[in-house]
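dude i think i finally got it to work??
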Amino acid sequence: MARRSFLRYAGASAAAVAVMGTAASCSKNDPIFITPGGGTDIGSGDPGILNFAYALEQLEAAFYLQVVATPYSGISSIETAYLTDIRDHEVLHRDFFKAALGAKAIGTLTTDFSSINFSDRTSVLNAAKLLEDTGVQAYDGAGYLIKDAGYLTIAGKIVSVEARHAALISNLITPGSFVGSDQVDGDGLNKSATIAEVLAGANGFLKTKVSAVNYNYKP
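look at this
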């Protein structure tokens, strides 16, 4: 959807979800843990799943902010426009989850992009593909754990945008590859990943490690 439309949607929906999140915060079963090593645990229940998504959106937003701030060598005007739009979406997603979770939100994560050469197109686009593909698989893999219909609807709207990002990045790398077999199975369904699988990869780009003790995962 257009950025202005999404912003209006995000602002209105965030207020509604924040109310639900505040009510959920009264539960003793949904704690947010600060791990001994200085990491962060996502918690449990619906707030835990939303924090899982929030962590990924923080990572993606930070990545694209860097990409646009320090364009790779030879970047074209159309690529600049595409990546700027994706940056804007990811920042909106990040801020949306933060507002929706309210007091239940995990803290700001510190990223580690030392493995990415931001001056090199191949390095940047390959990293973008990894983040986008992982993000879509994460939503698909954790969606069934969401119990609140309102949360599930919002997650569905966001993952559909993330899938558009993934297809675009794939096509920038290899034209015509936006429905590659590495992401879509023989039944035409997007592949999914567990919380453990996603965090194992995401933590490679994070100094602030994220765990999910209620979902059998520790960094």
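The beta strands are 40-41, 210-211.
im so relieved honestly
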